[in-house]
Amino acid sequence: MSSHPTSAKSVVPAHGDAIRIVPLYESGGTPTVEAAKAAPPVAPHLTYRNGPMLTAVEVFTIFWGAAWQQGTNAALVTHVNQFFDFILTSPLIDQLAEYSVPGKSIGHGRHAGTLTLTSPTPRHTVTDSAIQHMLQHEISINSALPQPTPNTLYFVYLPPGVRVVQGGSASCQAFCGYHSDISGQIFYAAMPYPGCSGCTGGLSPAEALTSTSSHELCEAITDPIPGQAWYDDHNGEIGDICAWKTKKVGAFTVQLEWSNQANKCI
Ligand SMILES: [Zn+2]
């Protein structure tokens, strides 16, 4: 999107919209065009571009659609919420401390709450602008949603069968999730249901969803306005460099994140 204000001090992401996505998983063999584009042509090293960070992130989860109230979907809602209850005070957040800068110390976050939004019903294809519209609308009329603060991060989960379209590409065709901002004021991540092999990466839907959620969480903390905080012009944000490399933190599957200090995915 072109809504990110630029100034002399900020740098526009060289790769445009695509760089903040979780790319599709490609098992073995030839990388997809997308994966090849995402593969580091230059050794990764993130630099800080003076933008804001979510130093004490407040995550609010929104499960959009009545389908989330049924059967295995409802179990997934519980799982994702338990993931945020745990992960925001876990070693996954501790490892981001290396990206603290003077005046902005990255610390633990909080799972501020959750909501299953049954009305309006999401369409079969949901565009990024529809997600932004829903968020702004619900924030203005729905007291169940917290008002945005500089630390608020809304995670929007779409139910099975709903395709998300952003930047001219679609979930399960080009991406498995992304994070963005609305005018630098509202920070959010859009998480389509992992209903294809490209977005499960050999994991269960529950594991895939916590993996991609951790990717977007860590990126949104360190670069909430994409390209304006910790960023690498060649390789993107900290999660992009390590896409689909996973580990367990507690009981949950998370993605590795790039460490400048360790010079590898950790
Ligand atoms: Zn990313």
How is this structure best described in words?
This protein is of the alpha/beta class and 266 residues long. It has one domain (59-249): Collagenase (Catalytic Domain) (3-Layer(aba) Sandwich). Helices cover 24% and strands 24% of the residues. It has helices at 33-38, 71-87, 91-94, 128-141, 197-200, 205-222, and strands at 21-23, 47-48, 58-64, 110-117, 125-127, 152-157, 163-166, 169-170, 175-182, 186-191, 230-231, 246-249, 252-255, 258-259, 264-265. The strands form five sheets. A six-stranded mixed β-sheet has the order 1-9-10-6-3-4, with helices on both faces. Strands 5-7-8 form a three-stranded mixed β-sheet. A hairpin with a 2-residue loop joins strand 12 and strand 13 (252-255). The longest helix has 18 residues, at 205-222. The chain is globular, with a radius of gyration of 17 Å. Mean pLDDT is 90; it is low at 1-18. Bound molecules: zinc ion. Zinc ion binds at residues 20-22, 215, 219, 237, 239-240.
Write the layout of secondary structure elements.
Layout: E1 21-23, H1 33-38, E2 47-48, E3 58-64, H2 71-87, H3 91-94, E4 110-117, E5 125-127, H4 128-141, E6 152-157, E7 163-166, E8 169-170, E9 175-182, E10 186-191, H5 197-200, H6 205-222, E11 230-231, E12 246-249, E13 252-255, E14 258-259, E15 264-265
Parallel strand pairs: 3-4, 3-6, 5-7, 6-10
Antiparallel strand pairs: 1-9, 2-11, 7-8, 9-10, 12-13, 14-15
The structure holds zinc ion.
Residues 20-22, 215, 219, 237, 239-240 line the site of zinc ion.
List keywords for this structure.
266 residues; alpha/beta; Collagenase (Catalytic Domain); 6-stranded mixed sheet; 6 helices; 24% helix; disordered N terminus; binds zinc ion
